[in-house]
Structure formats: C-alpha cells, structure tokens
Amino acid sequence: MPFREVNSKMVEATVVPGQRMYSQRGAMLAYKGDVSFTPNIAGGQGGLMSMIGRRVADEAAPLMTVEGSGTVVFGHGGHHIQVVNLTGDTLYVEADRLLAFDGTLQQGTMFMGSQGGVMGMVRGQVTGQGLFTTTLKGHGAVAVMAHGGVIELPITPGRPVHVDPQAYVAHHGDVRNKLSTALGWRDMVGRGSGEAFQLELSGSGAVYVQASEEKL
Length: 216
Known about the structure:
13-stranded antiparallel beta sheet, 2 helices
C-alpha cells in the first residue's frame, strides 16, 4: 500500500481489509477507522530467518502488525522519512531505520560478509550496524527513517557511487558494495575523524544517503 507524505517527518498509510502492514512499535501517531495494532516480534512470517534485524545477539526488530480499515499516521523520534517504492527488487536497510512497510514484502536478513567478504564484515563494524542487515523484497512501499533528510543517488553500470559509511541509510537494486580505505579522504574534505573508509556501491539501483553522521 502506498504511503502519503504528510510532511518530511510523517507519513499516512491507508489500511484496507485483508492487507496487513508492519510498523515499528511506538510509530503510530494517529489513526482513523477500525484499525488494530498487534505486537509482532518475528515479523509475521515465522521461522528463525524471518526475524528481521537479527544481529549477532539475535535481537529482533520490535514490530507491530497493522490491520483493519482506515488510515494511520506514522512518525518516530522526529526523524526524517523517506518512502521507497519497490518493484520486485530488494531493499537493504537496518531494522531500526524501518518505520513501516507493506506486509506483502518478503522479509529476511543478510550476512554483511556475503557482500565484500571480510571487508563486508568490516563495513558492519565501521557503520555500527553489526554483521547482519535487513532485506525486504517484492512489490510494495517502505518508509525508512534518517537524520537531517535523505538524498537518493542513482547507481548505474560503470559509474559506482562512493558514500561516507556513517551517512549510508539503505540501498536497493542489483548492487554490490565494498568498503575501502580512502587514504586521508575524510581529512582532505575537512571532516577528519580518524576514519579513512568509504563505501563503494556499484551495479544498477540506488543508494539513500542522510545529511548527518548520527545513528538512530
């Protein structure tokens, strides 16, 4: 179900009978109609691997199942919200950045090391995201949260995009990522913090970058 952006920090979703959606617990700001909210730890699809956001400590994303008939306004912590519409591809995003998403999307987790080998695991440590990331695949909408607003950068074959790992929010499409040393890259652009890494994304898709290095 599509989301309507109320403003940069709130979205409204239409809930219809027979179609469930999921949201982060505590993200409901207001609703109209006959809508129910049920705590759902496992993401609604059962099985160990459906526990989205699972990290080394086997933590699960605190989700709610949203069902019924009406409209719901979502927002959380005053964070900026970016709506991503998937058309059969996969979105890679951290569980704590998920505000709400269609229940039709297939949920899963991906080991960071599977994209970039050892460097994929290093990326998880540098970004503070751990060794697992969340995947959502199929046709539907996802509302993700970020600090300071988000820009969508297209990734096209032969034209990789380089991103500050701390500013990375999510990406989708047929994209490969690797973390590489930047040899003083951050110092040269006047943001030296002792971290000499940059995230390179290549292939075909898009990456979402926030205007801040803060974590949620």
